[in-house]
Design goal:
Blueprint (H helix, E strand, L loop, with lengths): L3 E4 L1 H12 L4 H16 L9 E7 L5 E6 L8 E7 L5 E9 L2
Parallel strand pairs: 1-5
Antiparallel strand pairs: 2-3, 3-4, 4-5
């Protein structure tokens, strides 16, 4: 099943920041690749998607985190949830791992 991605304002701004900083071009490419994989298969093994227990979605949904990068200092992660309707994934945030 292919999903429609609904990108939150916060995630959209994070993507803009990545686009503005030419030094982060490699990271932007990794994030875009992760978003494309989420759209086609959120369970894609390379994303290492798993539930993020310390947050809830806007309507109490389970929040998941997927890896855009691995084994990299401050590797980027994508936080997302299913919904608000069937066939939609809401991208909540795009953040570097602390």
């Amino acid at each position: 099943m292919t999903f429609l991605l609904d990108v939150s304002d916060a995630a959209r701004e994070a993507l803009r920041e990545l686009e503005r900083d030419k030094g982060l071009a490699k990271r932007l490419k990794a994030v875009r690749r992760a978003l494309a994989r989420l759209e086609s298969n959120p369970k894609y093994p390379g994303l290492r998607s798993h539930r993020f227990f310390s947050l809830s979605g806007p309507n109490g949904e389970d929040v998941f985190v997927s890896y855009a990068e691995q084994n990299t200092p401050a590797a980027y992660r994508v936080l997302w949830c299913y919904g608000p309707r069937e066939g939609v994934i809401t991208i909540l945030a795009v953040v570097p791992h602390p």
